[in-house]
Design a protein that fits this description.
Layout: H1 3-28, H2 37-44, H3 49-54, E1 71-75, H4 85-102, E2 109-113, H5 120-132, E3 137-140, E4 149-150, E5 163-167, E6 169-170, E7 185-189, H6 195-203, E8 210-214, E9 221-223, E10 231-237, E11 240-242, E12 251-257, H7 275-280, E13 288-292, H8 293-299, E14 317-324, H9 328-339, E15 346-353, H10 358-365, E16 378-382, H11 388-399, E17 406-411, H12 419-423, E18 433-438
Parallel strand pairs: 1-2, 2-3, 3-5, 4-6, 5-7, 7-8, 8-10, 9-11, 10-12, 12-13, 13-14, 14-15, 15-16, 16-17, 17-18
Helix pairs in contact: 8-9, 10-11
Length: 439
């Protein structure tokens, strides 16, 4: 074998060896650890906090990386279900102590939804730490303790807060409160707050877009005035409501729980407009509306017009919950609302009860306006039993809905309404599909 051939073979082996060594080194390069922190933060905050904390065992370089996250979410994924509320809070405090010791940079979000029993003093100090870190989202949910937490005053001076969800708190505004100028979303659940405080809070959130009030205590008169509000959900006790100066509202969901067990609204003073007119006269831009039985009865206080003067031209979705078809006041109100929605496309109704009422039956039979529901396409009625009043309402829908495509009825009993019976009813639409279901 010539010397040239031997040299070429050795050169080939060297080249192959170098390639293998380079490939091995490439495999051992820790590319993840060398990623920019903003990229790592994006990865880690999308993991459950428990999994993000487990990265501390990867290497000494990773030991405290998780403590520098921009978002901290404590939920049931972090702890075994067997742990009690107090023990869970103890575990949370261990994590908080590490974060306070090693964290640098901003913290944008803190969510506590671990069904724990927080110590008020510890939570105050943590919120103070968050306030100094540029907190934008604070979410407190589902405590296991009964005692109400008093919110610390420095929370109301967080300039960057854009989302607040508070549960089980005592809400009092400090005397020097100037407003949440960045707050876009506010949710209060089982919070103790008086009407005047709530009104002041809403007024002083100039860019507030979403407001949710659930099981609020001590509310008598709900005054909601905010020109930028777009979404409103209320499921709570209250006696009266005013929605003036909320012209941009496009989604409203109101479930009224009568205060003190009183289901009949107080008598209106002579000359005052019906509650239906007063509440809805400013909601000209609304697109989605959900109303419950007791609130319909509240709206019926006064002389209910056949239709609202302020036509709800933009309303395309209407959901009526817990309707009592034997209550003339409720039926009168929701028919008046239906008359005022020329562009309504979807109608959902859940029925609470339908005992026979001669006055309701007569009222429904008298509704004979041509093309009453000219744009209606989908109707779903849940909880019916097939009474004569329910059937009269269904007849009205079928006879006055020329574009209707789908009608679904759901009964809770063993027997569904025969589709053949509904097919015998006069229908304005030739293409409607009728379906009867049972639950």
């Amino acid at each position: 074998m010539s010397a040239k051939v031997l040299v070429d073979e050795k050169r080939g082996k060297l080249i192959k060896t170098d390639a293998i060594e380079m490939e091995s080194k490439a495999k051992n390069v820790d590319r993840i650890s060398n990623l920019p922190w903003d990229v790592l933060d994006t990865i880690l905050v999308n993991l459950p906090l428990r999994d993000a904390a487990r990265t501390s065992i990867l290497s000494s370089k990773w030991r405290y990386k998780w403590t520098g996250l921009s978002k901290f979410v404590f939920d049931d994924k972090c702890f075994p279900s067997s742990l009690s509320g107090k023990v869970r809070w103890g575990e949370i405090m261990k994590i908080i102590h590490q974060v306070r010791s090693y964290h640098s940079g901003p913290i944008e979000k803190f969510k506590l939804a671990a069904y724990c029993c927080p110590n008020s003093s510890d939570l105050d100090q943590w919120i103070l730490f968050l306030a100094q870190k540029g907190l934008k989202e604070l979410i407190l949910q589902d405590f296991s303790c009964v005692k109400r937490l008093k919110l610390p005053s420095f929370l109301f001076s967080c300039p960057q807060v854009s989302c607040l969800e508070l549960y089980g708190c005592i809400f009092k505004l400090p005397s020097d409160f100037k407003g949440f100028y960045c707050l876009k979303s506010l949710q209060l659940t089982q919070v103790s707050i008086i009407s005047d405080t709530l009104e002041s809070l809403i007024r002083n959130c100039p860019i507030l877009e979403r407001l949710t009030l659930l099981s609020i205590e001590h509310l008598a008169f709900l005054r909601i005035h905010n020109p930028n509000l777009k979404y409103l959900k209320i499921d709570s006790e209250f006696e009266d409501i005013c929605l003036e100066n909320s012209m941009l509202l496009d989604s409203v969901d109101i479930r009224m729980i009568p205060m003190y067990g009183r289901t009949v609204p107080q008598q209106l003073e002579h000359g005052k407009p019906c509650n239906l007119v007063r509440v809805f006269r400013c909601l000209t831009g609304i697109k989605k509306l959900t109303l419950s039985s007791y609130f319909l009865e509240f709206l019926a206080n006064g002389e209910v017009p056949e239709r609202l003067r302020t036509v709800l031209n933009h309303l395309s979705f209407l959901d009526l919950k817990e309707i009592k078809f034997n209550n003339l006041k409720e039926v009168t109100v929701f028919v008046s609302v239906l008359r005022s929605c020329p562009n309504l496309e979807e109608l959902y109704i859940s029925v609470a009860e339908t005992n026979f009422s001669r006055s309701v039956l007569g009222f429904l039979k008298a509704q004979c306006v041509c093309e009453f529901f000219s744009q209606l396409k989908v109707v779903r009625i849940r909880g019916i039993t097939g009474t004569i009043i329910e059937m009269e309402f269904i007849k009205l829908l079928l006879a006055r809905s020329p574009l209707l495509e789908t009608l679904i009825t759901v009964t809770y009993g063993p027997e569904r309404i025969p589709e053949s019976l509904l097919l015998q009813v006069q229908r304005a639409s030739k293409h409607v599909k009728i379906t009867s279901l049972t639950l």
